[in-house]
Structures are given as C-alpha cells and as structure tokens.
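step 4 of 6: structure.
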Amino acid sequence: MATHLSRTFVLRKLHQLSGIVPLGIFLLEHFYTNSKAIDGPAAFNKAVDDLQSIPYILFVEIGGIFIPLIYHAVYGLVITMEARPNNLNYPYPRNWFYLIQRITGVVLFFFIAFHVLNFRFGMIPGLNRISVAHRPDLAFDIVSGEFRLLPIFLIYMVGITATVWHFANGIWLFMVDWGITIGERAQRLTGYACIAFGIVLLLVGINAAVAFIRPGGILGGLL
Amino acid sequence: MTATQSSSHSSSVTRPAKQLPKSVEIHIRRRANPDSPQYWERFAIPYRPNLNIISCLLEIQKNPVTSDGRPTTPPVWSMNCLEQVCGICTMVINGKVRQSCSALIDNLDQPIKLEPMSKFPNVRDLVVDRSQMFDHLKRIHAWIELDGTHDLGPGPRMDQDDVQERYAYSRCMTCGCCLEACPQYDGDNYIGPQAIAQVRLFNMHPTGKMTRDERLEALLQEDGITNCGNAQNCVQVCPMNIPLTRAIYEENREAVVHGLFGWLKK
C-alpha cells in the first residue's frame, strides 16, 4: 500500500534535513575558513579567494546556502509560533532544550540576516559597504576593523554561541526525528556526544573570532 | 567544640514532633457550564492523615461552603478506580498534571491548586471531554483485524523482548497526561504520544503488522508524528512509565523507511 505524505510531513522532514545538509556542513566549512585567521591575514584572505574560485559558485551559493537558509529560517519561525512553552510547570532538561532551540532560532534569524548583509553583501550603512566576497584582498581588514568595536564583537559572541547550540542540539534532534537514535540509553549517549561536539565547536568558533583582533587567537604566541 | 556538639545534640533531642496542619486549604478552578467563564473558589477542610485529593473533594461535596463562609455548588469531578489505573480522575494539581486519586495531601504544598486539564474541552469544574483521544485511536486503527468469528487456532509466536515492550505500551490508560504536558499539543493539532505509542503496540504484533501502512498513514497526516518537538515532557509525566519517546522514535524510523523512502522499493 502506498502511503500518502501530507504537506506538513514533507515540510518538516525538509526542515530537519536542511539543518544538517547543507546548513550544518556549511557551518563546519565556515568555521574552517574562519580558523585560517589564526595563521594571519594573508592565510585568511587566500582562503576567501579560494572559495570564490569554486566552479559554479553562484549556483552553489544560491542552491547550497541561500535557499536552504531562508527555508530553514522562515519555516523554523512557523514551527516556533506553534510552541506553547510550559517550562515553569515542567522544568525537565529536554523541555528547556526545546525552549532554547526555539529562542536560539529566533536570535539566529536576526543575527544571520545582519551577518550576511554585513559581510557577504556590504549593505550595512555606517558600518561596512564592501562585500568581503568581492574583495578577498580586504577580507581580513574588514572583519578585523569591525571586531575591534566592542558591541559588534559581543554580537558575534552571542551569535556564534547561539549557532553552535542550535547546531549541536539540532544534530541530536535530527537523529531522533529520523529514527536513527531510538532507545533511552542511545538518547542519553548521543546527547552527551552532541554536548561534547558543541563545546569543541564553540571553542573553535570563538577562537577564530578572537584571531581577528589578537594574532594567533586566544592562545596566540603560546603555540 | 565540645559546647557546639552538646548544644546540637540537645537540640535534636528536644526537637518538637513535626507540626501537622490543622486544615487543608484547596483552591479549585471552577466553571459552571461549558460556555461560562472560569473562576477560582477557596475551600478549607479539617486535616487528617493520609488524605488524597479525592477524599478532600468528597469532604467539600458534603458541605460545599467556601473558606470565607459562602455556600456554593458542590464541585464536580470524575473518578472511578481510585488506584491509578483508569486515568479518569486526571487533573492539574499545583501546576502539574497527574491522577488526583494517587495525589496524597501529605506530599503536596499548600494551598493546593486544582485545575481541569487545559488541552481538552472543559465541561464543568474539573471535568473535561477527552473524546479527541478516542478519535485518535480510531484513526490509527488501534486494534487487530480478525477475519470472522471462527477458531483461527493459536496466534503467531512472539519474541519475549517484543512481548515485554508491547506490555509497556499496553498499559496506556488514555488519561491525557502526555497531551496536557506537551508544549506542541494545543487545540487537537497533533495526534500525540498516546496514539503514537498505540501504533507501536499494534505494529509490533505479528498480525497487526499486516495493516501497518494504514496506521502509518495516520501518522503522516498534517497533525501527524512530525509535530513532535522532542520536549519529552510526555515520558516524564506518564503515570504508567510508558517509554513514549522510544515509541515516537521507533515510529519516526517507520515513517522515514516506509513513508519517505517506500517509493525506492517500487
């Protein structure tokens, strides 16, 4: 018997999948490129230049990033609107994770909109009018100049933390939603694995951001 | 050092017996009929040991006078088995959903607040209409198809592990705790953990498996299994300790393998 898939079922499955592939994969690539800043401005600028030389870059960027990103963000807001949080009466860890996943999602909606307009398109008047993608030779200096402004740096710290939480918990959610993780013990063990992965990813993300204002990152001069 | 020790020792000896309350203060969120607004009423009844919510309600019913001395209508609630196996006396007690028969006054903070479940139509006072859960059971075919009334012989043998797991799901008493505590369930927009666990129960049965796709079909609808938000309150509040999240994630796998990727076998 053929089963009929409802619209909601397909949209939810696409939302869950898009968070891992391509968005999660892109996030890892993004942190990798950012981490090039640890080796200095020249290494980072070269990494940005290399990305621009990817064949079919326009289609990769539109199909692999912008469309999934906009879909995940907008449908994520639709899902968030359905939530009826009850954490004070039912203060269990997973219930807090449920709420935090939605709060970080809303934070990321605004943070990523700002981040993309700022660096990818250079469309934030009074802050930056140059697209980093179009001027790889200036990439490090544009980012570095902004990160020296404390409010901007703090916005990025909040944004990176929210991103890493949303992704690390999102991997766990994907595994249960797609029936990969099932039993209580497996839920617990994959939960610990996601927390460990999130901590490592957070340190990598923050260290890369620090590398734009302190040569070599947090441990600059020590390693 | 010696002085401290002796003083703490003497204080533990002279500590007075645990102060027992003289009365039990109960606030009830009431409603006269389905169309009228809700309101709170306060009651106080004499304390005695080992009271539960039901015995307090019976006490109030005998003499329905509020704690400020105003006569009122006797509060209405549902009850039946009084041993936490029928599920009908489920209500929200001090903010948490549970059965009122097994809620002992000695374990509750006073004043005790009683409210009807908020996710079901409130008929009167603490009584709700839970028929939407029975509609879910009909939609997921929560039964085994039997062809005729003649003797079919012994049923197919089942693995002991499957028997154990099915037993856990079979304990569901359709009380509604999981739906009440679910932050995704509101206005019957989601088929919910209760029905999903029953899909698992009947899809694990060797004969029930034959109609698996019919049950799966119900889980793939607009209000189906993907409405789960993984807050996992259901498994925390379930009074029968049913592994509800396990059932949901098993059905997620069935939904992906047979629903999403079923066409790859055609």
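step 5 of 6: annotate
 - The interface with chain B takes residues 1-9, 12-13, 79, 82-86, 88-90, 92, 94-95, 97-99, 173, 176-184, 187 of chain A (CB under 8 Å).
 - The domain at 7-210 of chain A is CATH 1.20.1300.10 (3 helical TM bundles of succinate and fumarate reductases).
step 6 of 6: archive
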